[in-house]
Amino acid sequence: MNLTPIAGNGAQQFLEGRFRGALEQAADGTAVLKLPLGTVDRAAAVLAAEGARFITIFAAGETTRFLVAAFAFRGEIVALQAPLLNGSTAYPALSLHLPSAELAERELHDREGLTPLGHPTLTPALRPDADDLEQRIVGGESFVIPYGPIRSGIFEAIQHVIETGGEDVLLLQTRPYFKHRGLERRFRGLEAVPGVALAERIAGIATVAHATAFSQAVEAALQIEPPESARLWRVVHAELERVANHLDVATKLAEDAALAVGAARFSILKEDVMRLRARLCGSRFGRGVVAPGGLASAPMLSPAELRESLGRFERDLARDRKLLLRTSSFTDRLIGSGRLDRETIDALGGVGPVARATGLSTDARFERPYGAYQRLGFDVVTFEGGDAMARLDVRFGEIRESLHLIRQALDSLERIADPAVLRTDVAEGESGAAFGWAEAPQGELVYWIELEAGQIRSAHISSPSLRNWPLFVGSFRGDVLTDFAFIEHSFGLTAAGADR
Amino acid sequence: MLEWLTRGLRKGVVTSRYPRRAEPETAGFHGRVEVVGDDQAAHAVETVCPTGAIRVSGGRVSLDRGLCILCGACVTADPQHFRYSSGFETASRHRTGIVVGGLIEQRLENSRPPLAVQARPLRRSIHIRHVDAGSDGAEEWEIAALTNPYYDMQRLGLYFTLSPRHADVLLVTGGVTASMTKPLERAYEVMPAPKAVVAAGTDACSGGFATATGEVAGGVDQILPVDVFIPGSPPSPITLLHGLLLAAGIVTEDSA
Amino acid sequence: MSGVFLAAVIVLLAGIPAGLARARLGAVVTSAGLILVGAVGLASAAGWSHGHIGLGSWLGFGPAALVSDGLSGIFLAIIGLIGGLVSLALIERPPARLGAALNGLLALVLVTVVTVNQGFVFLLAWEVLTLTLYLLASLERDRPGTLLAAYFGASLSKLGGGALLAAFALLYAQTHSFEFDVWAASAPHLDSGVKAAVFVLLLVGFGTKIGLVPFQGPLPLGYAATPGVLAAAVSLALNAGFYGLWRLAFGVLHADALWQGELVLTLGAIGGLVGILYAIGQGDLKRFLGFSSVEHAGIVLLGLGVAIVGRASGKPLLEAAGLLAATLHVIMHALAKALAFLGADRVRSSTGTDELAPLGGLGRRLPRTAAGFGVAVLTLAALPPFAGFVSEWFTLEALLQAFRLDNTIARLILALGAAALALTAGLGLLAFAKLYGTVFLGWLRSPLERLREARGPAVGFAVLATFTAVLGALAPWEIRWLGHGLQGLLGFDLARTTISHPLVLGPVYPGFSVLAPTWLAIALPSYALATALFVIVTQRPRTRRAPVWMSGALVRPARVQYTPAAYSNPIRVVLRPAYGYSRELVRLDGGPRAPERYTLETRIVPFFERRFYLPVVRFGLRTSELARRLQSGRLGSYLLYVLVALIVVLALIPALHN
Lengths: 500, 256, 658
Hints:
Distance between the termini of chain A: 25 Å
Largest sheet of chain C: 2 strands, antiparallel
Strand order of the largest sheet of chain A: 1-2-5-4-3
Largest sheet of chain A: 5 strands, mixed
Oligomer: heterotrimer
Helix content of chain C: over 70%
Radius of gyration of chain A: 22 Å
Shape of chain A: globular
CATH class of the largest domain in chain A: Mainly Alpha
Structural class of chain C: mainly alpha
Number of domains of chain A: 2
Shape of chain C: globular
Number of strands of chain C: 4
Strand content of chain C: under 5%
Structural class of chain A: alpha+beta
Helix content of chain A: 40-55%
Number of helices of chain C: 28
CATH superfamily of the largest domain in chain A: Cytochrome-c3 Hydrogenase, chain B
Distance between the termini of chain C: 54 Å
CATH architecture of the largest domain in chain A: Orthogonal Bundle
């Protein structure tokens, strides 16, 4: 991971000018603003007004506890850090100024007991009760449909409370945290390198992204760099994972539209990618590949073999994609459904393909390039429109870019001097704390790891799915119940990653 | 529509012939961890496993696949005793049936016969309701893959159903978080007899990583009576297929 | 027979003061009178004997008499038997004193209208009918909206009465007599322009009573305003309008022009659709039934239109087919609607509300009401083997005979009428499914203050329900009876060609198609019973109860079931142009700390109110404003008016004399 911020000059100047004396540079390049507890919300408002994107808020530290709020600001991560002195358990809520912080502050309240003063809807978030349905439309015209947590299909558990007037979706509440496994706490006590096994199992369909973000956090904390070949292979695995995720979205959308042959063909394509990953590393999901220091296992295919498999795959995909986008009975269901606009994305801090479908070029590989992405060229795929069709178009574009990135990485690997060196040694018993990130298929994923004497003392994860679920609620404008599946699958979010 | 038809026909048949014919195993695939060379194992190898799946006693080793998350730490630390294999028939009708190695406990008999024995018509038509009780999301992909043309479980008479009132098998993934306990119990209660419960994945067999946090019950068998345990993190589609056929009674268990 | 008839009328007369003295007594007396009258009607229509009560000339304008012949017998039977059962129900639920007396008056007036053979007495009775209905509708004047409904109904009835007066005046001018027989004799010699004008006036006059578009507005409101069992009695007043059309427009005037039939068909088709579309969106039980009456009136007119077209094309079988279908439908509708209103009254007295939204799951708590209401719903929704299915089948079959016509336009209109009937029937299923499902099935939506089944034998309700249920199976006998009764209008007995085998029916044209409702009524339940027995004996199913599946959640099922508005929402959205439907979610402001709450505001553009009634009312108000200026209150102006009138009259008389 590159330790000097690439596009950080704008951020530095602004922060130095505005928060004179509070700015410090952390070892991993993060800009840290040390502020008193009572001013964190105002500082957050200032940053948000300047276009910063809220990432997460959490509590850290052993003897002295700190409240940390992280933002993505002009190509850097800016952390607002405030000490929780004298056992204080309340602080002015960021949600007053930032709607994107509402869910994270509710979770923080449940986990750590820190009360955000002035929070608009401070209700318990963790361990929700499936029967506790709040009906917000009064009068006898509408009724409520509890859709979830057990839903109609092979889907993850999350509850949507739909208030409908018969055919249309009037109001929607999405309640995550049904699958809360408390895995952030589980990190405590694990050794730095074996801890990646837990990171891989936070959100199984984004295994490589989580492992990459975790490893980069550890590497930044311990100030080590993996070798070039490892960084290139990490790119290969991450992009294969992105392709698999996007094909899964296309398959689900085709199934929703009852386009049986289309769904079957795209599921074949996805299965081909999963089997390719199995041949490459032994795991269909890329588990046991990425670890702090580099790679944990050597690839089982040569770049030439991989390139050949990808060529066949790409030809099949091109034909199926063209046919799918020409089938009007399919595209008609997507065009105009679940429209989001830029203002909503900005206000709620949306990330990933959902944000890119409204024209924003929010991509962690582009804003804060990491690993081999700093030297590989790719385009951030954006579309205007913000509806489900735009989100699908973004995904197909990203598949194209991913395959391009993989080919570039394979070319670089073939030219590399010592391809067999896949790991840098990770010293044991060291301490440090750092942020690490990766662009998961769902969007920007951020880890924060604190190491003490070689063991993880605390960990915090900001999942893109958690940040995007509130966007799902706001995307229903005049859509009806039958559009629900299309809009949900076009978002392509996970519940496991959000609930942790 | 005609173009979809011709595309499909040109691809040909890709469907697996399992269980009528053996499924070719993928070389190098991490299907399961096997215990080999079962003696003189060091006691220290127990601490290598992050979920505590390994027990060593008197130099003999047992590996509880229900706790094994296939991370490979044991394979790296002690290749004398542990290695990956691509075998996929890992499911068992008893919880102790998925514990392998020299140090094996008494096997308990499962009192419930498979579905096809309880009701003959179920031999050719089983409806499966999947419930996610706290998995990491990967098991759902593998379960959904069962309907793709490679595995096509519908040729064996297995179908996914959306209403548990129409279901014969309850396929549960995840180690049952607190919020999902009541919904899972309700899904089971609402199913008509005869019914079977299949725990798919290591999280469902034992709770996996999350057991130590206290947020999960520690496996589906803590909440419901389980008929088949399918280990794996996640179990591959063919592993799931084997487990489902076991619950139906279409295949029988061989000691792997 | 005439003696019995006279006795019945005297009993009816006695029912009015009896009702003033004691409500229950009045109900008993009226009921007895009505049943006697009904028996007379049955006998007359069957052709056994005719009843005759001479009224002399003392009511004015020539001799009058109450005659019960074939056609009058049919309607006497309807009003008498059904009205008698309704009055029986009145005994158990007595209205306010005035209500029972008004019921008696209504009965007497209706009997007069359908039997008198002279125009002046007819008009007299018609106006008394208007007054009676107004008084009935305004009984509960404290309830909001009641007086408006009463005035609205009265004004439109006056308009209708005015049209009838004009029609009778025209006929009098041509024939110098008010007697129906005289009019009938001179009808062929009437000037076609006069005949056309009279037809249209008669259509308007009787249309206001039956709910012909565009006069259907007050009908549902009137039903909603009339309290209790009396609404069922009011629903019988519809038949007076049908009788008027049968007797005067079809019989006396001998409508035989193609355009007349086409006009009636078109109005009927539109009326049917309008009625059911507005019924679907209603949230009030009695208003729903009112709009359903509009729908069924439309279907009746479809039959009548075919009859006129058949007569104009010189096809007596077609004429008979249309008239038979229309008459069957009138009888079915009278029965089922009266039953439905009795059921609605039972719901109202058991739950305290007329609205659909808070109800639900009443089937378990009010089993007898649910059963009776269910029979009415099944009949009105035209499901086999009930009477509604039989009469709609006949109507459809009559419309399908379009291919026998030569005139292309007539064929087209009949075909379109058939399409409209099909659409109406389909929407009717939806509407009644919504009504019955949201009231009697499911779970109770809102807690009610009281919920008890009414005690008592409910004789009227039970007999009415039983009769409605078996009416479909009794169709062959009904048609034989109608054949005698309609012979006067048609000139032949249609039962001969309609009933082939003993219990098999055809649409008057022999061999065209068949329907056997009697056999259906035996076969369908037998199949169901046999299947149930087979399953129980061979499968021996064991039942285990488990809660409703709600995706893993479990709340009170009443919260997650469809509301009445939600059930009809898709239709309102799809047919948005017809409703002008719009909906808005409005945030409720409860203060800074209050939880987020919203209400749903729905707007439907009431088409007829906005485009038709309001402009007319405004015009009327403006005109009366102008006229009010004449009433300046100054003595001088009035003296001037008198002078002007005198001069005009003095000038006119010599002018006219020359």
